[in-house]
Amino acid sequence: MKQFKNIVGYVAGFMLFICLIPSIMWVVFGRDNLFVPRTWILVLALFLVVGGLCVALWTIIYMKKVGKGNPADAFNHEIAPRTQHLMTDGPYRFCRNPMLFGTLVFYVGIGVWLESWRAFIVPIVFIAILLVQVHFEEKRLEQDFGNEYLVYKKATSRLLPLKYFLNGVCAKSKNK
Fold it and tell me: Which contacts qualify for 58-61: CB closer than 8 Å, 24 or more apart?
């Protein structure tokens, strides 16, 4: 039964985040000619879409193997088995929410492909809603992992992997 619930959850997530939301973006903000954007637009969009999907998929696999659960709560209600191990490596070394980051990059890629500035409303609304959820998840992670999570939280950014890259650049420039 547990295996079935997991499969249903992943299929539902895929249908919502990877199929339904981009379809809504396409229907609402449109693209007259489905496959013929300018070459550089197509290349950039493809890079963002594939890159975002890869980050999100890497996060799901890492979460399942290393975290032995899911950090996600849906507005303070457990929707999957809770994480047994705090994840700070793999995709989580870049930011605290790499799946959201990957999904955001994916939606930006769809917006680029649609060549519509209005299509960027979707990723903005998506992130705004999910950052509210992230707030509750972080409270739960603080309760579950205490000081270990607080240290990790201070060292990494919430969504964008800026601290990781800025720390790397700053460390390299100090060593020169």
Answer: 58/90, 58/91, 58/98, 58/102, 59/90, 59/91, 59/92, 59/98, 59/99, 59/102, 60/10, 60/99
Q: Find the helix or strand (DSSP H, E) in which 56 lies.
A: helix 39-62
Would the pLDDT of 173 be above 50?
A: no
> Which residues partner with 70 through β-bridges?
82
Give the span between the Cα atoms of 116 and 101, in whole angstroms.
21
| pLDDT tens digits along 132-167 | 888 888 988 898 899 999 999 999 999 888 877 777
Dist. CA 107–CA 6, nearest whole Å: 24
Tens-place pLDDT, residues 45-54: 999 999 999 9
**Lowest mean per-residue pLDDT among 19-23, 41-45, 59-63, 119-123:** 19-23
Fold assignment, 2-175: Four Helix Bundle (Hemerythrin (Met), subunit A) (1.20.120)
Smallest CA-to-CA distance from 59 within 43, 83, 79 is with: 83
- Give the per-residue pLDDT at 98: 93
**Domains of the chain by residue range:** 2-175
Q: How far is CA 64 from the centre of its chain?
A: 15
What residues are paired with 82 via a beta bridge? Answer: 70
